[in-house]
Write a structure and sequence with these properties.
Chain A is mainly α and 84 residues long. Helix content of chain A is 68%, strand content 0%. Chain B has a single domain (12-364), classed as Hydantoin permease, CATH 1.10.4160.10. The chains are: A mainly alpha (84), B mainly alpha (488). At the A-B interface, helix 1, helix 2 and helix 3 of A face helix 1, helix 2, helix 9, helix 12 and helix 17 of B.
Chain lengths: 84, 488
């Protein structure tokens, strides 16, 4: 087989690898969320999306009434500051 | 005492994450991914097609699906209610609904694949040529309509039983089955004697082909249509997510699952054809439709051909069927959430509407092909463009990203997604519509060319603007009109 064929075969394998990786990660993350909820502990909405997402949400909360209403109604507001 | 509207009662949701993922994966995969992709890839320079295709998947398809999915989670209702809530443009949701109704022709395509399963099970191809089977079928209008009606009933069963007890349960079983069949088929395909030539033909990049207009447009349109953004499928499926579920980052799994399935289908089909005597010249003559005829002949010439043929066409039917019940769910969701019908009644009414809309294409192959052409070329890109206008601009792409995608998200998604949604996705849509209109103009059929494009825009603008004007007169409130005082 030519170099190009091997190269494309590698691209396909990387694509399959990404499929498996992101599926396992997604199922794992959702499983962790379910376990936290089942244990009765509060679930941090930024547990996986991180501090950058939290900072952006905090900044928008003060400016945007739609965001404010959504966060207040869904119990997200207390998590806009990082939990200790 | 008045009866409590069904929509105000507890809304159904996904029982398991894998159930949701399997449903969205197979809604994206559909029949085209398993059937069209291998031939398009091989016929357009193999790897030279594959590389731009994968880039377009990440740049165009992924942001479109994230946009629809996050809108669905925010709206938590039908396409009409969600578009109304987010932009005040309920007409876009109505157009999505109409698209799914008139796309009853897709269920006709599913019924054809079911017929092929039945004929494979009866071992008809051992004695009769596939061309003869096909022409006999097309000549018998009662049989065509009957198969369509049976497929419609089969497709209505999962939505009839709801999300957890119907769609989720079915998706997990048949999705798993299709993945196993196609994986086994791919391994078997590449291990056949002589299959290596097929593998080389399928994957070896013809670099001279890579930057030609035909390869790039072919890769772009295949990447664009493979996910099925614009139908409202992801919007409705994500509307059943729980508030703590991810509706953004998880779409990466759909992106990789969809293409992995298509690549595996290529590994199963192309090397098998070469192992059975096809060459690079004869394979080029095959397209998605001619392959329907070629594959049974190939299977019949192989050891264990009966069972291979049956399993292959079953997998093809499953891939097609997975879209059919999602299509019905979009309409049923409107009946339940917007018109407050019970789920069972809503599904039956949806199926009856589809029966009426699909009756004509079920007995006319040319009508089916023309509908497929017009819907794929103009209606779908128009709806994605409008979705971008409604959500990306009127509601706010950044607001959606920060508020819905990254909150309870399984990973951080940056501003790049908003940029792609607001600028690249609509630009590609408009380019594709004009390109298709220009290419189809030569067919001589007015509604396939610029006439079809103009008619699509005229109908869409009339519906969207008409309903917007009506809502404005009746003081319809949407979330963008919310003031700080009301939010407090």
């Amino acid at each position: 087989m030519q170099v190009g064929t091997w190269l494309m075969l590698m691209v396909c394998l990387i694509w399959f690898g990404c499929f498996i990786y992101f599926t396992v990660k997604d199922l794992g993350d959702e499983g962790k969320k379910s376990a936290i909820i089942a244990s009765g502990e509060p679930l941090d909405p930024y547990l996986f999306s991180g501090e950058k997402a939290r900072a952006e949400a905090r900044a928008l909360y003060g400016k945007d009434p739609v965001v404010k209403k959504y966060f207040d109604e869904n119990g997200i507001t207390p998590f806009l500051t990082r939990p200790e | 005492m008045s009866k409590k509207p069904v929509a105000l009662a507890k809304r159904d949701n996904w029982g398991t994450r894998i159930g949701f993922l399997m449903t969205t994966w197979f809604a994206a995969i559909g029949i085209g991914n398993m059937w069209r992709f291998p031939f398009r890839c091989a016929g357009n320079g193999g790897g030279a097609f594959l590389l731009p295709y994968l880039v377009f998947i990440l740049l165009i398809s992924l942001p479109s699906v994230i946009l629809e999915s996050a809108s669905g989670k925010y709206g938590h209702s039908s396409t009409v209610d969600t578009m109304g809530k987010m932009s005040g443009l309920r007409g876009i949701g109505v157009m999505m609904l109409l698209l799914n109704m008139f796309a009853a022709y897709y269920i006709v395509v599913v019924s054809q694949s079911l017929y092929w399963v039945i004929e494979s099970a009866r071992n008809v191809f051992a004695a009769v040529s596939p061309e003869e089977v096909w022409s006999t079928y097309q000549g018998n209008k009662a049989l065509c309509f009957g198969m369509f009606a049976i497929t419609l009933i089969l497709s209505a069963i999962p939505p009839f039983f709801g999300i957890q007890k119907g769609i989720e349960r079915v998706a997990k079983w048949i999705g798993g089955f299709a993945f196993i069949i196609i994986l086994v088929g791919a391994v078997r395909g590449v291990l056949l004697p002589g299959a290596i030539d097929g593998l080389v033909y399928y994957l070896t990049p013809d670099w001279s082909n890579m930057f030609t207009a035909s390869t790039l447009t072919s890769a772009l349109s295949q990447a664009y249509f493979t996910f099925g953004a614009g139908w409202g499928w992801f919007l409705v499926l994500s509307s059943y997510l729980k508030k703590e579920s991810d509706a953004g980052y998880g779409n990466l799994t759909t992106c990789f699952a969809d293409t992995s399935f298509a690549l595996l289908a290529g590994f199963a089909i192309i090397p098998t054809l070469f192992a059975c005597g096809y060459t690079s010249e004869t394979v080029k003559t095959l397209g998605a439709s001619t392959a329907y005829v070629a594959m049974p002949q190939v299977f019949m010439g192989m050891k264990g051909g009966y069972i291979i043929s049956l399993l292959f066409f079953l997998a093809l039917f499953v891939a097609a069927y997975s879209c059919a019940y999602v299509l019905i769910e979009v309409i049923a969701c409107f009946m339940v959430d917007t018109l407050h019908m019970s789920r069972k009644k809503g599904t039956v009414v949806s199926a009856l509407l589809l029966l009426v809309c699909g009756a004509a294409p079920s007995i006319s192959e040319s009508l089916l092909n023309n509908l497929d052409n017009v819907f794929g070329s103009y209606v779908l890109p128009t709806l994605v463009t409008l979705l971008v206008v409604a959500v990306g601009y009127r509601f706010g792409g950044e607001r959606l990203r920060i508020m819905v995608i990254n909150t309870f998200g399984n990973g951080y998604i940056g501003m790049w997604v908003t940029v792609l949604i607001k600028y690249l996705v609509p630009a590609v849509n408009i380019f594709l519509m004009v390109w298709f209109a220009h290419s189809n103009q030569a067919s001589g059929i007015w509604f396939l060319g610029y006439g079809g494009l103009g008619l699509t825009w005229l109908i869409t603008v009339t519906v969207v603007a008409g309903l917007w004007w009506y809502d404005k007169k009746h003081n319809y409130q949407w979330d963008g009109t919310l003031t700080s005082k009301e939010a407090s």
